[in-house]
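for the recovery benchmark. tokens below, seq after
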């Protein structure tokens, strides 16, 4: 709304990368796990949507690391 198209695209690109991890579980679970890994105690999703395989955790960690290096989180 402010006309910052470059900033908006940067934010969208950061979100799109996290969306690629949705293949490892329920999107709510992936988001909550990412927020938890950032240090916020948000708790787990209810079963059966509370599981993220190790491969998914590694993907989320990499996404967060890459975004941190870009100054996005």
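predicted aa per position
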């Amino acid at each position: 709304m402010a006309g910052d198209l470059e900033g908006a695209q940067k934010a969208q690109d950061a979100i799109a990368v996290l969306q690629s991890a949705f293949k490892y579980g329920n999107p709510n679970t992936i988001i909550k796990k990412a927020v938890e890994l950032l240090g916020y105690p948000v708790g787990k999703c209810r079963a059966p949507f509370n599981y993220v395989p190790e491969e998914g955790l590694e993907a989320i960690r990499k996404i967060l690391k890459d975004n941190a290096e870009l100054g996005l989180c």
